[in-house]
C-alpha cells in the first residue's frame, strides 16, 4: 500500500531535472543546426529586397516620364554618397527622397549611373557610344551574389 501511494505521489510532481536537461539539449541542437540556414537566408533576402527596390524606382521614373511628358532620371550613386539612388527631373531636383540600399548590399560600379527615361517610356539614345546615357543595366551585389537589372531601351520595360 505504501508503494502505491509513493508512485501516485511521484506521478504528480512534474518533470525531473534530468528530463528538463535532455529536452533543453535537444532544443539547443536543433537551434545550432538552423543558424547557418538563417544566416544565408538573411543575405539573400537583402539582395532580393535591393533588387525589388531598384526596380520600383526605375518603374516610378518611367511612370513620371510618361505621365508628365518630360524626361526623368533614375540616378544610382556608387561614389559621392555610396549605395544611394533617387529620381530626379531634368533640373536634377530629387523628387521623392533618396533611397539607400540594405546593409551589406552595394552597386557593382563605383560611379554615378543615370537612366534617363523619355516621355515615350524608353531610354534616351545618343550617337556617341561612350555617352553615359547609354547605360541600360545596373547591378546590385553582396558577398552571396549579384543581381543585374536591365532596362529595354525602346520600351523601358525591366528584364
Explain briefly what this protein structure is:
The protein has 159 residues and is of the alpha+beta class. It has one domain (15-150): minor pseudopilin epsh fold.
List the helices and strands and how they pair.
Layout lengths: L1 H10 L5 H52 L3 E6 L6 E5 L10 E2 L5 E2 L4 E6 L19 E6 L2 E6 L9
Antiparallel strand pairs: 1-2, 1-5, 2-3, 4-6, 6-7
Give a structural overview:
The mean pLDDT is 83. The protein has a single domain (15-150), classed as minor pseudopilin epsh fold, CATH 3.55.40. With 159 residues, it is α+β, with helices and mostly antiparallel strands. It has helices spanning 2-11, 17-68; strands at residues 72-77, 84-88, 99-100, 106-107, 112-117, 137-142, 145-150. The chain is elongated, with a radius of gyration of 28 Å. The chain has 2 helices and 7 strands, in the order ααβββββββ.
Largest sheet: 4 strands, antiparallel
> What's the level 1 CATH class?
Alpha Beta
What number is the mean pLDDT? Answer: 83
Number of helices: 2
Number of domains: 1
Shape: elongated
Span of the ends, CA to CA: 81 Å
How are the strands ordered across the major sheet? 3-2-1-5
Task: Write down the secondary-structure element order.
Answer: HHEEEEEEE
CATH topology (level 3) name: minor pseudopilin epsh fold
* Class inferred from helices and paired strands: alpha+beta
**Over the alpha carbons, how many angstroms does the gyration radius reach?**
28 Å
Question: In what range is the share of β-strand residues?
Answer: 15-25%
Low-confidence stretches: none
Q: Count all strands and give the number.
A: 7
| Helix fraction bin | 25-40%
Report the CATH architecture.
Answer: 3-Layer(bab) Sandwich
Amino acid at each position: 500500500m505504501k508503494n502505491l501511494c509513493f508512485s501516485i505521489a511521484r506521478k504528480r510532481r512534474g518533470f525531473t531535472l534530468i528530463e528538463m536537461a535532455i529536452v533543453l539539449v535537444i532544443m539547443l541542437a536543433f537551434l545550432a543546426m538552423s543558424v547557418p540556414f538563417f544566416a544565408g537566408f538573411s543575405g539573400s533576402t537583402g539582395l532580393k529586397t535591393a533588387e525589388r527596390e531598384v526596380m520600383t524606382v526605375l518603374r516610378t521614373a518611367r511612370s513620371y516620364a510618361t505621365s508628365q511628358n518630360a524626361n526623368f532620371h533614375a540616378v544610382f550613386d556608387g561614389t559621392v554618397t555610396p549605395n544611394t539612388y533617387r529620381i530626379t527631373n531634368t533640373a536634377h531636383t530629387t523628387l521623392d527622397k533618396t533611397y539607400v540600399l540594405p546593409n551589406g548590399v552595394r552597386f557593382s560600379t563605383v560611379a554615378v549611373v543615370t537612366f534617363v527615361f523619355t516621355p515615350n517610356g524608353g531610354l534616351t539614345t545618343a550617337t556617341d557610344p561612350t555617352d553615359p546615357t547609354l547605360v541600360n543595366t545596373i547591378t546590385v551585389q553582396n558577398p552571396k551574389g549579384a543581381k543585374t537589372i536591365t532596362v529595354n531601351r525602346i520600351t523601358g520595360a525591366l528584364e
